[in-house]
Amino acid sequence: AALVVGGLLAGAAVAFSRGVTSTAGEVEFTRPLAIPPLASSTVQDGVRVFTLDMQEGETDLGQGGLAPTLGVNGSFLGPTLRATRGEQVRIDVTNSMSETSTLHWHGMKLPAVMDGGPHQQVEPGRTWSPTWTVAQPAATLWYHPHLHGRTADHVYRGLAGLFVLDEPAGSPEAAVQDALPHEYGVDDVPLVVQDKKFHADGRLDDADPFLSSTGVRGSVVLVNGTADPYLDVTTERVRLRVLNGSNARIYSFGFDDGRDFQVVGSDGGLLEAPVTTDRLRLTPGDRAEVVVEVEPGERTVLRSFPQELGVNPFTARFSGGDDTLDVLELRAAPTLEPSAPVPTTLAGIPSADEGAATTTRRFELSGTSINGQDMDLRRIDEVVDAGATEVWEVTSLDDSPHNFHVHDAQFQVLDVAGEPPPLDLRGWQDTVYVRPGKVTRLLVTFGTTPDAEHPYMFHCHLLRHEDQGMMGQFVVVDPSAAPGTAGRPAPGD
Ligand code: C2O
Ligand code: CU
């Protein structure tokens, strides 16, 4: 009860003290959008090797001065990694910062010890070299730190980048990939979207004076670290790989002129077929791939619109979905290169077969905890059989927005409050919005590499919530191992 009352008070304080922000029509779009460089790699004995260096630096984020920031192979954000399904990769991650961190491969299926979660710490001066074989469809994944209690701070200051997976040349999937816009930085453009607050001297402001329940939300939206960005579009269609890399903000993307666009991909890869819409919700950690059509010479603004985030039946409606924020201006050239039409069939997605599930687990999000427990790095919360398919039912009991992310998995959304999921959520997801007071049911198939010693995480991806304890750990074990043995710990260990 104390938690519910606390949530109510926090909600009331937020609603009372922060107004609704709108930057619609006020952003002047004076800077060309920066495109994160593609990370270079070498192939050594058949392994594609990347070198990443986490560093401290200073960056002009366009707010009146230099901001102390963190970056990967640079002072803010990091390069885009790119690998092909079937390839073995190794990432040599060096920490040149003065504090410990980690680097987690969000959305990747990989052995737990390579995951870069809170247990795979990289101390200052050290190098950590995870390696795995890419075994999942082409997708827009990302990487970011995951040090428990410090994730929000490290991401906010700039540690994040994209990890794009491709299909091997010559495969049927590659034919679809080639039919979509695919020239990186030209008609296939990554957008790392992050809202920030700034001090008058240009430094990042991470203070949250109202102690809102979600963490910092700012009215300056950086895309790939660029403030007030525009993108010169030279083709009839442009594919945007959008990452919500924000700590707390939930966006509802659309265009200022109301145009439709096509959603072609979700967190874990291409959808079965394009979904035509004028709005797309992305919660922190989520990605989507969209294709936008432009006419020669026109301009259109990618904007986040106010949204109905859902009402908790037990409490007041929470705030946080009411802002309108201009994000990026697309400027079409006077003459445009032709683009192929978007294929009508994109990927084979199996229909979600609930009958395949062997177990149903429930997760109740409330305050800073899941099922009444705050994150404990020494406690295993769930023990899952390798290769098992399960139903995970996630419910939010309070009036703060939450989402839910599961490591090492791309899941399917079975239903939300008993209704089939919206069309853009019918592909592979690793992160999903959790409507307050309603049950969101996920069908999750777990990885096949048992490791009872190294857990994966599940958590809310609003980073303050995650840092405060809204996270749990699961291990994937050999189904034949006896409970209570090293091969199969009992939950709660
Ligand atoms: Cu994007 Cu557990 O993380
Ligand atoms: Cu949350």
UniProtKB/TrEMBL annotation:
State the Gene3D superfamilies in the record: Cupredoxins - blue copper proteins (2.60.40.420)
Q: According to the UniProt entry, which residue ranges have a biased composition of type Low complexity? A: 482-492
Membrane-crossing residue ranges in chain numbering: 1-16
Q: Which residue numbers delimit the Plastocyanin-like domain? A: 65-168, 235-294, 363-478
Q: Which Pfam families match?
A: Cu-oxidase (PF00394), Cu-oxidase_2 (PF07731), Cu-oxidase_3 (PF07732)
UniProt entry keywords in alphabetical sequence = Membrane, Metal-binding, Oxidoreductase, Transmembrane, Transmembrane helix
A GO molecular function for this record?
oxidoreductase activity
The lineage's top-level taxon is Bacteria
User: Which PANTHER family has this protein been placed in?
Assistant: BILIRUBIN OXIDASE, CUPREDOXIN SUPERFAMILY PROTEIN
Q: Which family does it belong to?
A: Belongs to the multicopper oxidase family.
Put simply, this protein is called Multicopper oxidase domain-containing protein
Instruction: State the organism of origin.
Output: Oerskovia douganii
